[in-house]
Amino acid sequence: MGVGSSMNRVDAWEKVTGQAKYTADLMPQNLYTAKVVHSTIGNGWVKSFDLEDALKVPGVIKIVTCFDVPDIQFPTPGHPWSVEKAHQDIKDRKLLNRRVRMYGDDIAAVIAEDEIAARRAADKIKVEYEEYPVILDPEASMKEGAPLLHEEKPGNVIAHTGFVLGDESFEEAVKEQGLTIIEKEYRTQPVQHCHIEVPVSYAYMEKGRIVIVTSTQIPHIVRRVVSQALGIPVGQIRVIKPYIGGGFGNKQDVLYEPLNAFLCTQTGGHGVRLELSREETLGCTRVRHAFTWKIKGAVREDGTLVARKYVAYSNQGAYASHAHAIAANAANIFKQLYRDEKVLESDSYTVYTNLMTGGAMRGYGIPQGDFVTECVADDLAHAVGMDPLAFRLKNCVKEGYIDPHLGIAFHSYGLKACIEKGKDYIRWEEKRKTYEKQSGPVRRGVGMAIFNYKTGVYPISLETSSCRMVLNQDGSMQLFMGATEIGQGADTVFTQMAAEVTGITEDRIHIETVQDTDTTPFDTGAYASRQTYVSGKAVKKTGELFKQRILEYAAFKLKLPKEDGPAAAAEDSGTSGKSTETTAWKMLNIKEDQVIDKASGEVLLSLAELAEEALYSLEKSVHITAETTSHCKENSFASGVCFAEVEVDMPLGRIRVLDIINVHDSGKLINPGLARAQVHGGMSMGMGYALSEELLVDGKTGRPLNANLLDYKIPTAMDTPGLHMDFVELDDPTGPFGNKALGEPPAIPVAPAIRNAVLHATGIPFDSLPLSPQKLVERFLKEGLIGGEKGAVKGGGTHV
Amino acid sequence: MGVGSSMNRVDAWEKVTGQAKYTADLMPQNLYTAKVVHSTIGNGWVKSFDLEDALKVPGVIKIVTCFDVPDIQFPTPGHPWSVEKAHQDIKDRKLLNRRVRMYGDDIAAVIAEDEIAARRAADKIKVEYEEYPVILDPEASMKEGAPLLHEEKPGNVIAHTGFVLGDESFEEAVKEQGLTIIEKEYRTQPVQHCHIEVPVSYAYMEKGRIVIVTSTQIPHIVRRVVSQALGIPVGQIRVIKPYIGGGFGNKQDVLYEPLNAFLCTQTGGHGVRLELSREETLGCTRVRHAFTWKIKGAVREDGTLVARKYVAYSNQGAYASHAHAIAANAANIFKQLYRDEKVLESDSYTVYTNLMTGGAMRGYGIPQGDFVTECVADDLAHAVGMDPLAFRLKNCVKEGYIDPHLGIAFHSYGLKACIEKGKDYIRWEEKRKTYEKQSGPVRRGVGMAIFNYKTGVYPISLETSSCRMVLNQDGSMQLFMGATEIGQGADTVFTQMAAEVTGITEDRIHIETVQDTDTTPFDTGAYASRQTYVSGKAVKKTGELFKQRILEYAAFKLKLPKEDGPAAAAEDSGTSGKSTETTAWKMLNIKEDQVIDKASGEVLLSLAELAEEALYSLEKSVHITAETTSHCKENSFASGVCFAEVEVDMPLGRIRVLDIINVHDSGKLINPGLARAQVHGGMSMGMGYALSEELLVDGKTGRPLNANLLDYKIPTAMDTPGLHMDFVELDDPTGPFGNKALGEPPAIPVAPAIRNAVLHATGIPFDSLPLSPQKLVERFLKEGLIGGEKGAVKGGGTHV
């Protein structure tokens, strides 16, 4: 089958039958259970604990408080470590914090024989606090006199960066005659990832080392951060990642593994489990950063985008986590998606507040930034009476675009083709016209949004990945990746890639799902839509070497004539890293598990025969393996578009998505079936972001108001229309198999496309997410589109 | 510390605190339990089962009988597979057998929700048999008309081999005048290994593959045999070996893993555990082969050994297992230990009987063969009135000896020095004289026995081993061996070896204890005293390559001047197998975790810095690892001696070992402390073999009579005197670190040394083991040394 086929997931059977083992399934018997004690204030200090009653609870083993943990601050984001101090992540939290910076901050932990004892004891702990006012908004947090959340960051500003692209300032540029200028403020809300499996881990000690089994996207980074947090060497820590039930970026943060590891050391190495509740997951882990954008845009009558200028405030919440990387990435989409003829001024602040901590979430700032660029695009087009699709085609970046700061280019450019395909599907022109003049309470519209997205993090950060292959006695292969399967299908596409490169068929490639920092190769993990591209290169490089070693053995076994290579080392050719003795292997190839003559295609030997001989030959026994690192120093833009058709029931404030399509330019698809599944999931996530999802907190205390899946609304199947998609499959020359990013993109353009469809339907340019009924009704009332007499509906109509 | 130091075991803390995880500790919850149903006849056929009552037992999941298993015969011994059909192991059993060949043969299995249900159901299964007479003795089994146990082996003889070393026959040779000729029959008994942890495993399915976690010495061989037994490819099977509680060769057989794997497939992949009881372990696994030896020896008056001739019958029991390899190895000791001036005639039969199956046990035939050579030596010396030590020095093989068939030599020869040391310790001459003329019922004597022992199985069979090393971010190392820690200290000595070769200190080397056929490199396992020698070579070879790769990176980081190597490939030098770009690394070395200038010793860089840079460098990121195979085509003899001083209480038939010493020539000791522990254990095992251990069966049915540790007597601490030992540490040029075999040797010479001391004390040359009170009293009565009137003790005396 190889690359390009829609083979079934390698883990399909496992997952459908429930045999797949997740962290909780692997827990041995007799683990202790830990429960974190969370602060019940949003800003202040822990002054003291009264543990007396708690310690009396039968089954309590130990209670550890913020007074007991190492005085070490550590970072949590899932970034490759930087050997340059200036680029290292911000170390701003301890295992447990005396300084409370959010409601639900981690201040103590109970270790008990079971869950019930742990919860009972946690409830009986009394805490005395010193309390400060709670600040939830970045601009308020930056004001003079606001309490500092972290002493080392004056004004609570983590970072402030910007750039100007153009030769003059925005103010200069807009002196031009005849420009239409808009000035707007957009807001995006904090949302949560809502992965099915909550953060869960268990830790135990083995030969003086700490072993942590955890649901994470980034086992090697967890290892490093636990080392930093506990102040012990990396080699003393082992992290094992079983199957995981989703992550979406939340598990690209090192959440509770360091605390779990520490608690294990506090029991003399007895195993301790730490599983968050859904409430803790929503209220105490990470969220997608809320942003405020103050933006001006100027457009000519002909639709030329002349200039934009904005200030963005990224609400970081209590701890730095991924910090300014999100705002910096969000800024990229402005320059990378549209060309301002004269100038683009960008200015971004990332600010501590007492909100939940912002972290990585699918799209990493781009869903927010794209919402704004795509609102602005429609609002500017609207302002000059231009078709928004035409506006985009006129102003969006063209083939040959290169990011002026990062140097990333489209090595394959499919954006326009995507727009064409999506336009045809949704019947854009026809519907734009049909819905032009509607009256009545229920109106329809079509909208669109485009995006592009870089693949992996190069050159901002390191991209490195390793792969290991081992030949089994039956000629099948064990495939080991440091890259992680987190539900997205990575194991399946790596299997296809390995088959493509080596000629061993997929059914005979056994990929290891469990990443174990002791045994599987190094890779930074699942994030940044990087794995098929970056880790795919490692598969390709390793596969080529592995195949060479197999063919070298085949040449030996087949007694092909030797031609002396540059460094003859007969016995070592299989595994020692020395050069091969002969180049005879180049006359051979592998096809469908058989060694063949490259020229004639004749089958010479089965891999099963070869493998058995290689292991057991009395003349030359060699265990054929290969392991290489691919250091990736390339990048390419993926891109795409979403078109949505909506029906807005204005009196009910209800938006029905009637039809929706994403069209993606992600290069060659490794597995079209999995690509479709990836897009499905992303579109559904985008719809939740657009319509219903928002983490709400009490304004006085910062206490989460809807940290549960009853009150926090993610879309259900009933809320979701048929999700359509298409692809523009260009062969990207930098991708290992012509491929580029697809993991995060599908979630990006959905919300602005829906917002723009609502604009088309109702004429109202909403400026914040989600487009909730409350928000819509208030605005429609204000605009006089509904209401008037006492709740009566202007225009009437039937609403189901 | 490195090689030669007595560092603490790397698993000492784990094992002392109980944190070390053995198979049973790792079992997840909700496994099913399987119980094997054993035959209650010793020879015959299963005609039918009545399962009705058994299936009614609540909790029974399934009952599988010998009518339900694949019609595939498979082998069980832990040998490297041979690609030559003639050398492949004998395939003579099925997962469950209709043809019953021993009492307790495996005829069915119950799978139930728990142990109790499984046992209850097993008890309720009714079996109808066709029954044949039971044959327990090889010579009886070879007689015409005896029922055939395996159709394909006429006369029940598995193999019959022999050799003649000399130019004339024994009969010709003994025509010489003045020879003293003895003719004797010696017997050794079946004994069991009595490892602490019984055979235990559990199996489950994962992605269509079978995973077996098991207490084994040979995970890769288990993988292959399960594949053969179930008729599925090797790649579909994964075997994981946690810590194991001893094996001593019993777990060098593939015991119940294939059945466990099969039962798992019969539940749709649900996990199934199979743990033997102690009774099953003693009665249904493997034993050390019982032998009968009929031997003649001829000696001149001056003590020259002129000729020997023997026929040996190895009692294989019901199934082939290691089969004739044991008898063939036992034959080796005759030629390898003494030189017969004229001729040695060797003739060995391995014969099926209805006894428990003979398998590998520490010494692999040599404890039996050495018992006979050393009895014969003393008996010949006794016959001509010569000091047995002098007899040995005169006739034993000398430096320069090369086995005429195998080509194995002493590359270091310490046998004579061992004898010297032991003789001095025991004060041989003084005591031989003192105890010369004793009377009374309690008499003392000193005896000795020598041995030699080849290291590993080359050239009889394949010796291959792989090793993998990975550099952690903190400059520490993960070390992976296919070789297995089975309690003997392998992990500790491999750690020392890796430290010695790489310059990374032992505290920063993290060896993986768990062998996993998916992740750890290939190695055939723990047996044949091979690991420090054969697998040690893999550590050395891999360590050298690993160090080179580290130093290559150091040269890059330190910007050492490049000298173009034969095949410049800058980026690949770390892991791709290409040749290095430069030879600058040769100017560097590693000492105590620091990169130093080789010439000056100046510290240039810590490995921690280097490792962090290597992983995270934006210029050159490389995950430094190394993995190589060492195909070992060398061997060397280890040797040694045991001296024992005993007191024989003849009326009680009781032997007290007053003093005992083993002196070993095992080359350089990697870890003297562990070497001592190894010798301790072996001496204790040898004492059990000498004095008390014997598996007894009912002569009519073959039913084990003492398959429990109450009636089967292994020595306790109370039975054991101070165990003394010494070493002759010659540097063996073929050993990776000057070392050679030590695992099995300590158990070999103890029994004959004690037997010879008893001969010295009493004048009675016992001809079988064990030297049990019953046997001694009968013989002393017969010889008139005790008894006479009605149980009265001749000579009297006080016995405590």
UniProtKB/TrEMBL annotation, chains A, B:
SUPFAM superfamilies, alphabetized: CO dehydrogenase molybdoprotein N-domain-like, Molybdenum cofactor-binding domain
Keywords, in A-Z order: Molybdenum, Oxidoreductase
A Pfam family reported for this protein in Swiss-Prot or TrEMBL: MoCoBD_2
Highest taxon in the source lineage: Bacteria
Transmembrane portions of the chain: none
InterPro entries xref list: Ald_Oxase/Xan_DH_a/b (IPR000674), Ald_Oxase/Xan_DH_a/b_sf (IPR036856), Ald_Oxase/xanthine_DH-like (IPR016208), AldOxase/xan_DH_MoCoBD1 (IPR008274), AldOxase/xan_DH_MoCoBD2 (IPR046867), AldOxase/xan_DH_Mopterin-bd_sf (IPR037165), XdhA_XDHase (IPR050028)
GO molecular function terms noted in the UniProt entry: iron ion binding; xanthine dehydrogenase activity
Assigned GO CC terms: xanthine dehydrogenase complex
Keyword Oxidoreductase tagged: yes
Aldehyde oxidase/xanthine dehydrogenase a/b hammerhead domain location: 17-133
Protein name according to UniProt: Xanthine dehydrogenase molybdenum-binding subunit XdhA
Organism: Blautia pseudococcoides
